[in-house]
Amino acid sequence: MARRSERGSTVAEAAITIGLFLFLTIGLLGMGVVFYDYQTISNAAREGARYGVIAVNTPTSAQVAARVCSMLSTGAAPSTCPTPTGNAVPKCVIPPDSKTTGGTIPTTDDVYVSTCSVKQANNLTISYTEVDIRKNIKLPLLPSIPMHTTAAMRKETN
How many other CB atoms sit within 10 Å of the CB of residue 51? Predict the structure, then answer.
């Protein structure tokens, strides 16, 4: 039998333990949703960049952005693009090692599509399509989490 001074300690310990367990469980679920959304955003950016370089008729930035936006609506926290017009990223730099360094990070939630073409000395044209996505993820009881991802692909034509 517990002493009179220890009667409430079991209830207090259980309350603290259950509270911590619930806090950790909810945190893990929230991080799972955030990770799933980040994967959705990354896949949408890759698909948009791929669509921009494999299409027979080169799509416009607005068409690439519309394709990306349709993929973004499938996430765990679905959203729509505010302006799926394919806002151009201010710069698209092609360094000597033929990799895109990309434009500036978008400052608002949107899809940014930029394309660059570089004429090579051997009459080969290399076209780059870059898709930048910025999206804020908002979960209940948590602050907004800004996410940004970039995907770039190149197409070589004669």
Answer: 19
Q: Which of 156, 108, 104 is nearest to 130 (CA)?
A: 104
| Helix H or strand E encompassing 30 | helix 9-54
Residue type, 31: M
pLDDT in tens, 89-115: 444 444 444 444 555 566 777 788 887
DSSP-assigned letters across all residues of 66-100: HHHHHHHTTSSS----S-TT-BPPS-----TTS--
Are 34 and 145 a contacting pair, CB within 8 Å? yes
10 Å CB burial of residue 97 (0-12, 13-18, 19+) is exposed
Q: Which amino acid is at 10?
A: T
Crossing angle of the two packed helices 61-72 and 9-54, in degrees rounded to 10: 150
Distance (Å, whole) CA 84 – CA 3: 69
Task: Give the start-to-end residue ranges of the domains of the chain.
Answer: 4-157
- In tens, the pLDDT along 10-67 reads 888 889 999 999 999 988 888 888 888 889 889 988 998 899 888 778 788 888 888 8
| Residues 73, 130: Cα–Cα separation, whole Å | 20
DSSP bridge partners of 129: 115, 153
